[in-house]
Design a protein that fits this description.
Layout (H helix, E strand, L loop, with lengths): L5 H19 L3 E6 L4 E7 L4 E7 L6 E3 L5 E2 L4 E6 L5 E6 L4 E7 L5 E9 L4 E6 L5 E6 L4 E7 L6 E3 L4 E2 L7
Antiparallel strand pairs: 1-2, 2-3, 3-4, 3-5, 6-7, 7-8, 8-9, 10-11, 11-12, 12-13, 12-14
Length: 171
């Protein structure tokens, strides 16, 4: 006979381990679609990168784009594609920045430096439908930052100061 309660403890530890693994491998997905191509971009926080995939619109299969994954800042948390499909933005929570990328004809990303400084731990991004403004949710500072987007270069310029949110850790 084994130790009383050992099986229950083993079950709890196994479930806890699976939860930790599941939380560790969480990836965020943002898709860019045009009439000529469909591309999916996935941030991978544990290796500080963005992986790009071509999406087969008939089968849904993904094939990795040559040169991918692309380096980002520390701990990327979200990626958003500009409405015109020419630029992508990545929030880097580990260094409080936003990376700007140009999107090539194959879907490949090329980073445009320098990175834009934002609030504490940007966890998500939003671009308005006209593509004129980008907003970051800064989870550690409980703020939202606003940036105007230059339509030709994609560069960001901060608009005002970050706005405090009600509650704790906006998402």
């Amino acid at each position: 006979m084994g130790v009383p309660g050992a099986k229950e403890l083993e079950t709890v530890l196994t479930r806890a381990s699976l939860l930790i693994v599941a939380l560790t491998v969480v990836m965020w997905l943002s898709a860019c679609s045009t009439s000529k191509r469909q591309t999916a971009y996935v941030t991978t926080p544990l290796n500080n990168g963005v992986t790009a995939f071509r999406v087969n619109t008939n089968t849904g299969n993904l094939s990795q784009i040559l040169g991918s994954p692309y380096p980002t800042g520390v701990s990327p948390t979200a990626i958003r594609v500009h409405p015109d499909g020419k630029f992508a933005y990545v929030s880097n929570a580990g260094e409080d920045t936003i990376s700007l990328y140009t999107i090539g004809s194959t879907g490949a990303l090329t980073e445009v430096t320098p990175r834009t400084v934002t609030g504490d731990q940007p966890s998500d991004l939003l671009i308005d439908s006209a593509g004129q403004f980008l907003f970051t949710v800064n989870s550690a500072g409980n703020t939202v930052s606003s940036f105007s987007i230059d339509g030709k270069s994609g560069t960001l310029s901060q608009v005002g100061t970050p706005v405090q949110t009600a509650g704790f850790t906006p998402i």
